[in-house]
Design brief:
Shape: globular
Largest sheet: 5 strands, mixed
Strand order of the largest sheet: 3-2-1-4-5
Helix content: 40-55%
Number of strands: 10
Strand content: 15-25%
CATH superfamily of the largest domain: ATPase, nucleotide binding domain
Distance between the termini: 20 Å
Mean pLDDT: 96
CATH architecture of the largest domain: 2-Layer Sandwich
Number of helices: 10
Order of helices and strands: EEEHHEHEHEEEHHEHHEHH
CATH topology of the largest domain: Nucleotidyltransferase, domain 5
CATH class of the largest domain: Alpha Beta
Low-confidence stretches: none
Structural class: alpha/beta
Number of domains: 2
């Protein structure tokens, strides 16, 4: 079964082909980082316009490389939410047109489900498991008993962890997106110099909070003499990263203990963070839990994860009608 995946939920235009016999046959992406860098974050209208320009040429390029016609597909899977509504509509409209023209099934995929199932692209999933989905817009703990059955265990009460990384980086004058720069610079930072707060760390609930951490970082940066020294930036990066990673790991393994699962996973853009991957791996090893991090290319927004999720839907007999709508916000729900 060959599934075309389309992902346009934010600022990356991505298309992919998932072949149930070969795995990911192709995963293409057109980045908008340079477009939004001057604004320090994603401008929704600009993102939508860029998707309009980039999406169909990417689809055409993918099919040509695979020596395929649209009629050779067995289905089209598309992210229909959550995300930037204008950006989502570009992908959804294109997916509907392709599915209708090729007379193949259409599948709408929840963006968070795509991130969860991205782990299956790097190896066989061990289920049941607790997943930590952590990105610029999400910080959630989800229990997965089987593909298609999801239970939200907890999440952030205010800001997402990825936003805390990016806003901290912006305060330090680092380029957008800031998370990877924090990760890189933290390696040279002094872990003892800046001890930022771990909000709600002793709270027994499976909840997160990062607004207070962002405030603490802002006040610390404002007290630094200008211009910032390289070591100052590295030390603050280390303090930010240590705080966020400790909070995320504490909650992930608390949830794993409560659900008594044999495996844990991480997903989303922040899952590419080296310190987080190492910390989860070490704690999982000590607790004799299975953990295999997703390949970094499948951590950020990509269409391969959407195509794979679409294949899971189709082989279970689930498909969408052409009146499928997009949505800016909605929780991940079970469909099996």
């Amino acid at each position: 079964m060959k599934i075309l995946g389309i992902e346009t939920s934010c600022d990356d235009t991505s298309v992919a082909l998932y072949d149930s016999e070969r795995g990911v046959a192709e995963n293409l992406l057109s980045s908008q980082v340079e477009l939004h860098d001057q604004f320090g974050g994603v401008v929704p209208e600009l993102a939508s316009r860029a998707h309009l320009v980039n999406l169909l040429p990417l689809v055409d390029h993918l099919l040509r490389r695979q020596e395929m016609e649209p009629g050779d597909l067995d289905g089209v899977a598309v992210t229909n939410g959550p995300g930037l509504i204008g950006a989502l509509l570009v992908g959804l409209s294109t997916a509907k047109a392709l599915a209708r023209a090729a007379n193949v099934p259409l599948v709408g995929v929840h963006h968070l489900e795509g991130h969860l199932l991205a782990n299956a692209l790097s190896g066989e999933l061990v289920l049941p498991a607790v997943f930590l989905v952590v990105s610029g817009g999400h910080t959630e703990l989800i229990y997965v008993s089987e593909v298609g059955r999801y239970e939200r265990l907890g999440g952030t009460l205010d800001d997402a962890a990825g936003e805390a990384f990016d806003k901290s980086a912006k305060l330090l004058g680092l380029p957008y997106p800031g998370g990877p720069h924090i990760d890189r610079l933290a390696a040279a930072g002094d872990p003892q110099r800046f001890k930022f707060p771990r909000p709600l760390i002793k709270d027994p609930r499976l909840v997160f909070s990062f607004s207070g951490l962002k405030t603490a970082v802002r006040l610390t940066v404002e007290d630094l003499p200008r211009p910032y020294q390289d070591q100052d930036i590295a030390d603050i990066s280390r303090g930010v990263q240590d705080a966020i990673v400790e909070i995320l790991c504490r909650r992930l393994f608390q949830a794993a203990a409560e659900k008594r699962v044999p495996a844990v996973y991480i997903a989303g853009g922040v899952a590419a963070n080296g310190a987080l991957r190492e910390a989860v791996a070490n704690q999982a090893r000590r607790r004799s839990l299975h953990f295999s991090p997703p390949e970094r290319v499948y951590c950020t927004d990509n269409a391969a994860m959407i195509a794979y999720a679409g294949w899971e839907h189709l082989r279970a007999g689930c498909r969408a009608d052409l009146d499928l709508d997009s949505f800016a916000r909605a929780p991940l729900t079970s469909w099996r």
